Amino acid sequence: MNDPLTDLVAPSLADIDRLARDALEAMPDGFREQCEGVVLRVEDLADDETLAAMGIADPFELTGLYSGVALTEKSFSDLPGGPDEVVLYRRAILDEWAERGDVALGALVAHILVHEIGHHFGLSDEDIARIDPWWE
């Protein structure tokens, strides 16, 4: 007999990736178009180098990271660099999801993705906190 509770497994990297891509697809056209070329990746946890660069000791404190040049800083005269990128960290996301216990996983992934995309648009963490009370 199949029991839905005993058959549960943790969402995989691919599952989190699908949730993030669904959230990206659900963004309004104008926002989504401004994200074309942004690479989206999902990893289990941030590596030691990333954590050191961010001044973070606990890898479970970092659920997502935008790296690149914000749209507000880009210039046509810039030399091409690497692509802008959003990385979501699966285990940190799952840890937060479990701790919260009051939000759907897809909603949490979407929120983290939108937060990181906010950095792509040139918003600081403080700017994002002022317009999005989610983290309070």
TrEMBL record:
Protein name: Metallopeptidase family protein
Top-level taxon of origin: Bacteria
Pfam family, one: Zincin_1
Transmembrane segments: none
Alphabetized InterPro entries for the sequence: Zincin_1 (IPR010428), Zincin_1_sf (IPR038555)
